[in-house]
DNA sequence: TGTACTGTAACTTTTTTAATTACAGATGAA
DNA sequence: TTCATCTGTAATTAAAAAAGTTACAGTACA
């Protein structure tokens, strides 16, 4: 469990509030209260998913790559997700045991079903919906 | 992210397959391929939620506390859950910032909604459904 | 009364996450 | 030009979380 999703939502919300103004990693980090390098790392990821634009150089900074009404929270979830929401076993179960031999496959199937449920939920919420709560 | 849910499901599946026979922590640990003490710890938790019976002493071991058709995977999820599925931020956002000041509340609300979706999904699946895949 | 379990605390090791440092590259302004 | 202020990213360190281990008391049966 980590706070990547929360950080990503926080960043995107700030950028939405800022409109066309560019925000610096320093400013964003100050609002979240984390290290600016982590902000830049997370933004690199979100940019790869087409959610954020960045501009280098003196007057550089970040802005949303598209309207917040066009971004659903499931986009953020997918961008950030590294492990299944249910967690992940890191042990190799005993292949000599009938249950151990097959359980990882069945657990993976289950995790995928749960993931689908989460994405279904988060597809119904846009960044604009979320961001609006702060106005 | 950890593997508690997976371990719990593994334990419960083994116990279901064993029927009335008691299984030892040693045996269970051998199937999962983890330390027996971790099995006993997880079972203590599941027992507190009324899912498992244990018997001490020489012929001791573990068994299901009720029929696997009466256990839904949401019971296991709730028993095991320590953090919200979306993760949890551990930083204190900046209270001087309009977004930082309120975001934790809104993120918590969102996490609760997602959690409800997960529980909804996992309430439809019984341990018997899952365990049946191994027969 | 010995054996084979569970129950649990304390501690160590490993893994993961977050923070930090450092610096190259970009861009605009004096 | 050249300085200031950003981003981009690698490398390292520190902190936190998870898993593993050791140890031993308590229980129950033979």
Instruction: Quickly give the CATH architecture of chain A.
Output: Orthogonal Bundle
| Average pLDDT reading of chain A | 95
End-to-end gap of chain A = 30 Å
Assembly type of the shown chains? homodimer
Computed Rg of chain A: 18 Å
Greatest interface by residues involved: A-B, 50 and 50 residues
Q: What is the helix content of chain A?
A: 55-70%
> Helix segment count of chain A?
6
Fourth-tier CATH superfamily name of chain A: Winged helix-like DNA-binding domain superfamily/Winged helix DNA-binding domain
Largest sheet of chain A: 2 strands, antiparallel
Unreliably modeled segments of chain A: none
Q: What's the CATH class of chain A, please? A: Mainly Alpha
Number of strands of chain A: 2
How do the helices and strands follow one another from N- to C-terminus of chain A? HHHEEHHH
Structure, explained:
The structure is a homodimer of 135-residue chains. With 135 residues, chain A is mainly alpha-helical. Chain A has a single domain (4-132), classed as Arc Repressor Mutant, subunit A. Helices cover 56% and strands 6% of the residues of chain A. Chain A has a two-stranded antiparallel sheet. In chain A, α1 (4-18) packs across α3, α2 (25-32) packs across α3 and α4 (73-80) runs antiparallel to α5 (98-123). The longest helix of chain A has 26 residues, at 98-123. The model of chain A has no long low-confidence stretch (mean pLDDT 95). At the A-B interface, α1, α2 and α5 of A face α1, α2 and α5 of B.
């Amino acid at each position: 469990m980590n706070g990547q999703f929360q950080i990503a939502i926080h960043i995107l919300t700030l950028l939405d509030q800022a409109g066309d103004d560019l925000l610096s990693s320093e400013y964003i980090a100050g609002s979240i209260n984390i290290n600016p390098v982590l902000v830049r790392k997370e933004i690199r990821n979100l940019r790869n998913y087409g959610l954020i634009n960045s501009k280098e150089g003196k007057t550089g900074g970040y802005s949303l790559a598209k309207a917040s009404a066009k971004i659903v929270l499931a986009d953020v979830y997918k961008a950030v997700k590294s492990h299944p929401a249910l967690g992940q076993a890191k042990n190799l179960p005993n292949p000599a045991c009938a249950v151990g031999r097959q359980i990882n496959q069945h657990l993976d199937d289950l995790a995928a079903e749960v993931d689908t449920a989460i994405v279904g939920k988060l597809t119904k919420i846009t960044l604009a919906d979320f961001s609006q709560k702060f106005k």
